[in-house]
Design brief:
This protein is of the alpha+beta class. Helix content is 34%, strand content 21%.
């Protein structure tokens, strides 16, 4: 009987210690959230650790995460960090019950790890370490108080042999009080953080974009084939893909935003704010963007109407000459407010295409998630070498002298978009009925255009699809092929030919180092026509 009571006491102490650790972690995160509101959102422990994890994750793991979780990969990462934190916190609590200084030290070390992660992030200053350090101290303090309540001197009149130094109700009240206080502090931190970004929100709401000096022509009639299930020709902002490393979307105040252009071959350095940029002639252009992480047939491509200033005009004003005209710089390094660096070939930016410093998307100021107030858009290049969001700095340098963020992680320094085509409909789990079935999708080869799309069934002969009207060489084209489908399982494949006459390769390769290749194929099960009674 005594042994049973002892075992029960040990289990209660372990359970109580785990509860102490988890509650202390909640308190530490809440205090850190409040502190990060006074520094910047990127300095909160979960965000800082998540960013450090992203920076150090192997390319293959990143590609797997994007493939498996899509745009929810950041949420999954944040949840994973919280789960790990919870496990460490519970361990610290159990350890503190056995040896209080050791448990307190473990809790403090986790705060220290968050501080180190915050300092490792691009653009970090010493202030970014403060939220994690303050949160770690708060967690250690709460853990000390709860464990002392759990294991300290036994209250007068308490029965011997138990695991609690206060009665269960008393301990429960302490835990509840700590959780309520943590919730209040965390809520205050969120509100203060939202208040801190209120200026950015207001600056976007108040921004009225000037009319373009060179407006885009209307989308040609017939560009949108309006086939059920096909991607719309213009992708709405809410549906436009987002792939980046920012766990917290930067909210930049347009009224304080500045951009600097400097570096090799710059004889007239430029620096200006948004109002000065908007005073320049604006051009409007329909451009399809594509992420290099897009698998064959993947969703990370979108087409939008962009408004901005021609980047080549700004570079010429700064005195920049492309390498073909004797300029010393062959790389334009764009830097984001979140520390991202993206390197773009100077020759490409200045070869006559509409490379833009974009301020508008589909008739509105850029959404925060897509780079407000200013981002780069360069047709014909994958986003990781052209489409810097939340832009703050442009430096002229060389590819030999500097490797941008993704190049340091095994991606190619230069990456023209490869010809791709995608079947949007039919796709599993749809099971069309036998007879005429519209097979449709989109194809793109930015800055070369699409001249032909072909479809085949079960590795048979290729059939030419009908193309939607062209909106220029920088946008995708819709296509449709009418298929007389027989019942049973089939496999559809598609390939495109670009504007130069080059046919899309059928050789399958992965996304690393410069984009996937291969024909998109879709398995389809066609069901027999339904029979109706006469």
């Amino acid at each position: 009987m005594t042994r049973v009571k002892a075992d029960l006491g040990r289990r209660r102490r372990i359970l109580g210690g785990a509860v102490c650790g988890l509650v202390a972690a909640c308190a530490g995160l809440a205090v850190a959230e409040l502190a990060s509101a006074a520094v910047r959102p990127e300095s909160s422990p979960v965000t800082a650790v998540g960013g450090a994890v992203v920076d150090r994750t192997p390319v293959g793991v990143k590609e797997w995460a994007i493939r498996e979780f899509g745009t929810a990969d950041k949420l999954v990462l944040a949840l994973g960090i919280i789960v790990v934190l919870g496990a460490v916190a519970a361990l610290a609590g159990v350890l503190a019950v056995r040896h209080l200084p050791a448990g307190i030290a473990l809790a403090g070390c986790f705060g220290l790890a968050g501080a180190v992660a915050a300092l490792s992030r691009p653009e970090a200053t010493w202030r970014d370490a403060l939220p994690s350090l303050v949160g770690g101290l708060a967690a250690a303090g709460v853990l000390f108080l709860l464990v002392r309540a759990l294991t300290g001197p036994r209250p007068v009149g308490a029965p011997p042999g138990g695991a609690w130094s206060v009665d269960r109700r008393g301990f429960g009240r302490l835990v509840a009080a700590a959780l309520v206080a943590s919730a209040g502090i965390g809520y205050a931190g969120r509100r203060l953080g939202a208040y801190g970004s209120a200026g950015a929100t207001a600056s976007r709401a108040d921004l009225v974009l000037p009319k373009p000096a060179v407006p885009a022509p209307p989308v040609p009639a017939g560009a949108d084939l309006r086939v059920p299930g096909i991607s719309p020709f213009i992708t709405p902002d809410r549906d436009f893909y987002r792939v980046d490393t920012a766990l917290v979307v930067p909210r930049v105040d347009a009224d304080t935003w500045r951009l600097r252009i400097h570096g090799e071959g710059v004889s007239n350095p430029l620096e200006f704010g948004l109002r000065e940029l908007l005073a320049r002639p604006l051009v409007e252009h329909d451009i399809t963007l594509c992420c290099v992480s897009n698998e064959v047939g993947g969703p990370y491509a979108g087409n939008a109407r962009w408004l901005g200033v021609r980047l080549a005009d700004l570079l010429r004003e700064a005195g920049v000459r492309p390498p073909s005209r004797g300029g010393p710089a062959d790389q334009l390094v764009a830097r984001s407010v979140d520390g991202m660096t993206i390197g773009t070939p100077v020759e490409t930016v200045m070869d006559g295409r509409d490379a833009l410093l974009a301020v508008g998307m589909n008739g509105e100021p850029l959404p925060f998630a897509h780079g407000f107030p200013v981002r780069m858009v360069v047709p014909g290049l994958y986003g990781y070498v052209s489409a810097c969001k939340w832009l703050r700095d442009l430096e002229l340098t060389t590819f030999a002298a500097y490797d941008a963020y993704w190049v340091r992680r095994s991606w190619a320094p230069q990456a023209p978009v490869k010809t791709q085509s995608r079947i949007d409909t039919p796709r599993p789990p749809a099971e069309p009925e036998e007879g005429r079935v519209a097979v449709a999708g989109v194809a793109w080869a930015q800055h070369r255009g699409i001249s032909r799309v072909e479809v085949r069934v079960d590795a048979g002969p290729w059939h030419e699809a009908r193309l939607g009207a062209s909106d220029g060489i920088d946008t995708w084209r819709q296509w449709v092929w009418e298929w007389e489908a027989a019942p049973g399982p089939h496999r559809l494949e598609v390939r495109a030919t670009d504007g130069t006459g080059a046919v899309q390769t059928g050789v399958r390769t992965g996304t690393v180092p410069d984009g996937a290749t291969g024909w998109h194929s879709v398995p389809v099960r066609v069901r027999p026509a339904s029979r109706r009674k006469a």
